[in-house]
Design brief:
Radius of gyration: 15 Å
Strand content: 25-35%
Helix content: 10-25%
Strand order of the largest sheet: 1-2-3-4
Number of strands: 8
Order of helices and strands: HEEEEEEEEH
CATH topology: Ubiquitin Conjugating Enzyme
Mean pLDDT: 87
Distance between the termini: 7 Å
């Protein structure tokens, strides 16, 4: 596993750039250093209430963060706090199910790390 100090050093550089992007795109970023967790929040673009995206960054960069949309109060994934899942205009989205963002940049997609749907994927950095 990646030492906590290494993860924090890498994130220190990347969070500054991410913060600039967030400011330009209507997101607010909050990093909970003790939990190695990044929160990105904004109002839903379709007016459906708040969005809170959580990124668990332990083990970063050897492992991708575990990204999921969570309820702002409970910090748990729920159907009501996860944007539209399934297909849109006949094409699959990266939001397969509650608590799973199915993309290579999210640990929640990998079976070996988070019980996700993709047992045939390895992370970009290989196995830990």
């Amino acid at each position: 596993m990646v030492p906590r100090e290494v993860t924090l050093a890498v994130l220190a550089d990347e969070l500054a750039v991410a913060g600039e992007w967030a400011d330009d795109n209507g997101w607010q970023l909050d990093f909970e250093k003790d939990l190695l967790t990044l929160y990105a929040s904004r109002g839903h673009p379709a007016g459906c209430g708040p969005l809170l995206l959580e990124g668990l960054c332990d083990g970063y960069r050897a492992l991708p963060p575990a990204w999921r949309f969570v309820d702002p109060a409970s910090r748990l994934p729920t159907p009501g706090t996860t944007p539209s899942r399934g297909q849109i205009n006949g094409k699959s989205t990266i939001l397969h199910s509650v608590g799973v963002i199915c993309a290579h940049f999210s640990r929640t997609a990998y079976k070996q790390y988070a019980g996700g749907p993709h047992g045939n994927w390895e992370s970009a950095r290989g196995r830990p």
